[in-house]
Amino acid sequence: MPVADYRTYCTMLDRARERRFAYPAVNVTSLSSANAVLKGLAESRSDGLIQVSTGGGAFASGIAVKDMALGAMSIAEHVHRAAERYSIYVALVTDHCLAEKLDDFVMPLVEATEQRRAAGGRNLFNGHMFDGSNLPLKENLDIAVKLLERFHKNELVLEIEAGVVGGEEDGIVGKASDRLYTTPEETLEVARRLNVVKGARYLLAATFGNVHGVYKPGHVKLKPAVLRDCQQALEKEYGDAARFYFVFHGGSGSAPQEIREAVDYGVVKMNVDTDMQYAFTRAIANHMFKNYDGVLKIDSEVGSKKHYDPRSYLALAEAAMAERVKQAANDLGSAGTTMFGA
Ligand SMILES: [Zn+2]
User: E strands along 131-225, which residues?
Assistant: First the structure.
């Protein structure tokens, strides 16, 4: 199927919240990793999200160019074409973008969507994240409201963050503090400010001890009940229908029980990057160790072309990452739920 349109993407999110499952949102940096997500989702009969970070976009544009928006556009255009060959829906989104990077990353992508729409075409992306969690909440939400107004006109879904995700992703290092846990007061303020833009759609990355990257057990104390408390505060203030659509960041390495609990409290999208990176690289490492004398020219030998052809190990990496995507779809309960053909 083509990439999900706005209505389809919104319906995906609504279904996830109603049926209490979440979609994997997988970071990609190349054609191989984007293809791995499509393959894994299709084999799981799961819809899902393909996500590009600022660093991923810069990488995809080429190490001589390093233009994060350009690389994100290239990946998105590939996904628009390739997704047509798979019987699932996929949404295209971008990951963390700090305020100082908006002009170099999110805004050029929004402009690309505006140009495509003006020409009668489809959106380039379905949504973008603005990460203002390093700012005071008021400043964070001032920027978010402006973005949401523009996004709403263009059928884009905004993702914002309140509280701070710990750990490191893409060179952004979070600090350990109380702010690892979002408070009900903060989320009520998010709703109060963003609900002013009538009919607009947004997702909230609330933090409940999440940390980017993977750590040994005991390093991180996840408290999914933080999400429950935020939902309850919201329902009390705005009625039963008002529930957040949460995003689970820093989910790599989480126990299935913690994932299920978070999904029960309204997580509809879980970002998975680190676990996918490992699955991809693990397959390549295996190939290199097993075919050591084929991938290297040792003792004036010539090596083995079929082993050092990058296609040989990138295909293995793609297959391994697709398997990891399937595991994510199972853990999140999205396997078998595709809306395609439904
Ligand atoms: Zn994140």
Answer: 157-162, 166-169, 172-174, 202-206, 211-212
Straight-line distance from the first to the last Cα atom of the chain, in angstroms, rounded to the nearest whole number: 13
CA distance 239 to 110: 33
The span from the CA of 90 to the CA of 83, in Å, is: 7
- 162 in Cβ contact with 132 (< 8 Å): no
* Residue percentage of the chain with pLDDT more than 70: 93
- 169 by DSSP, 3-state: which? strand
φ, ψ at 167 (rounded to 5°): 80, -165
| 119 Cα–ligand 1 center, Å | 33
What angle do the packed helices 274-290 and 310-332 form, to 10 degrees? 140
Is pTM beyond 0.90? Reply is yes
As annotated, the active-site residues are 95
Cα of 270 from ligand 1 centre, angstroms: 9
d(CA 267, CA 252): 15
Asked if residues 330 and 3 have their Cβ atoms less than 8 Å apart, the reply is no
Whole-angstrom CA distances from 106 to 68, 110, 151, 158, 188 are: 9, 6, 11, 11, 26
Distance 25 CA to ligand 1 centre (A): 10
- Distance separating alpha carbons of residues 158 and 152, to the nearest angstrom: 9
Distance 13 CA to ligand 1 centre (A): 18
Reply yes or no on whether the pLDDT at 1 is more than 90. no
Tally Cβ neighbours within 10 Å of residue 107: 16
Residues 335 and 329 sit within 8 Å (Cβ to Cβ): yes
Rounded to an integer, what is the distance from CA 170 to the centroid of its chain? 13
Evaluate if residue 177 carries a pLDDT over 90: no
